[in-house]
Amino acid sequence: MAHAIKYDLTPLEDYLAGERDVDIRSEYVDGLIYAMAGASETHNTIASSFNALIETHLRDGCRVWQSDMKVVIRNKGQKFSYYPDIMAACGDNTDDLYVRTNPILIVEVLSDSTERTDLKEKFDNYTSIPTLLEYVVVSQDVPLVRLFRRRTSWEREAYRAGETFRLESVELDVPVEHIYRRVRKEVGMDVSR
């Protein structure tokens, strides 16, 4: 006879309180907690370059964070908390200075271990956030940016090296090559002859 596995589900409030004072960050998926893996040098460099571009252009009253600010989502009766690679929000925050619930822009840099989650689970949950205007997924292996916008019903737009895209949420034109400028060799933009 098979036996069901019993999971002890953690309330979101307990997770949020416990997450403030930890050495290893975790994400929350409707009661289950998953430790986050560290990111590669290429991943961090891409995220830093993109974040810096947004930060220097962001209008007053808005803020941008890289990797350490949580977003909390309630979607179809379930609760989630993630650490987006980049998140921008405008206006007032919740009572919790460690959490945002009103982002206008979220960016995730893909890795082999996160691609499925970023393009399915997180896509479904992020796009349920009423304030979110754009979700951007950046490859760390090749110069490829996928952009999803609320105003186009989250239809995918793809941009490659040599192209520029507009982030309407923060009123910023972004050359794809700028995001990858410090990792040109790693993503195949500088090929030795």
- CATH hierarchy class name of the domain at 39-74 and 81-179: Alpha Beta
Mean pLDDT: 91
CATH superfamily of the domain at 39-74 and 81-179: tt1808, chain A
What share of the residues does DSSP label as strand, in percent? 25-35%
**SS-derived structural category:** alpha+beta
- What does the radius of gyration come to? 17 Å
Annotation, overall tally of beta strands: 13
- Listing every helix as H and every strand as E from the N terminus to the C terminus, the arrangement reads HEEHEEEEEEHEEEEEH
Q: Quickly count the helices.
A: 4
The helicity comes to 10-25%
Distance between the termini: 63 Å
CATH architect. name of the domain at 39-74 and 81-179: Alpha-Beta Complex
Global geometry:
globular
- The neighbouring-strand order within the major sheet is 3-6-8-9-10-11
Largest sheet: 6 strands, mixed
Uncertain runs with pLDDT below 50, 5 residues or more? Answer: none
Q: What is the CATH topology descriptor of the domain at 39-74 and 81-179?
A: tt1808, chain A
